[in-house]
């Protein structure tokens, strides 16, 4: 539990009509919040709930605060304020030190005294687990891999050989870092030959990696995820990709080999990015878009068609198939008009 005054201090918010000493036990949506909980308003769609919410206080913007009948925590950016306030109610990871009896740790691994190696983990030769790191149950740390200070591998995370994780990296269950990239060469007899992947993966500080995301090692140079990057669930990062600092990628993004994504980019869910492309800093790509050429200027980019009722989509699809024919007919008509006009 905490008080509204403490929440306001953490969130950088101003109290409006609140008792700073009021005790709060949790957070909840506007429509279901009860006394003893705080709520938040970040989208105008939910503004109508302000009149009936039972929350002890609501985090909202100065504009919304003018019409708020409930006590409020007023912040210039209520989403950021809520994110900071919610940390006060997040369950802390259990603080443990040492090595669980069921874990196997190579005698040549270096394990900080205040780190934790959980049940059924394997830590291979030459691996380094730095101070305060938490390696959750079922994780595998490969030879000469490094888990940086304060990092946390939640459960069943695989960090392959020579991979390097920076400080305060968070990897959710099922993450695989450093598996072989999809490197193949087609021989003259039509058979695929595996190309050894000799690089590794370097993860910067404060990176977060969602469940079941995979990051392939480089073919020669390293795959690099710079500091502050946030990766959602089930993302595929191919070999030799580089993702710039503080970019955020939503679920099911697929990035082909050797693509370069700039700093402070935002990539929507299901986006596909072809290999060997470069994306400039501060680019936003909307969900389900397909990127087939480099993007050299900041801005918002989209591709694809939004969903339509099936009958309408069938008509659109039929007309799309006729576009080439219609273009040719139009070009021929323009040429004819040009010739007739000239005479």
Strand neighbour order, sheet with most strands: 8-11-14-17-20-25-28-31-34-37-39
- The low-confidence runs, each spanning 5 or more residues with pLDDT under 50, are none
Instruction: Give the mean pLDDT.
Output: 95
Report the end-to-end length measured between terminal Cα atoms: 88 Å
Strands, total number: 39
What is the number of domains?
A: 3
Strand content: 25-35%
Bin the helical content: 10-25%
The CATH superfamily of the largest domain bears the name: Hexapeptide repeat proteins
How large is the radius of gyration? Answer: 26 Å
By CATH reckoning, the class of the largest domain would read Mainly Beta
Number of helices: 5
Task: Give the oligomer, counting copies of the same chain as homo and different chains as hetero.
Answer: single chain
Structural class comes to alpha/beta
So what's the overall shape?
flat
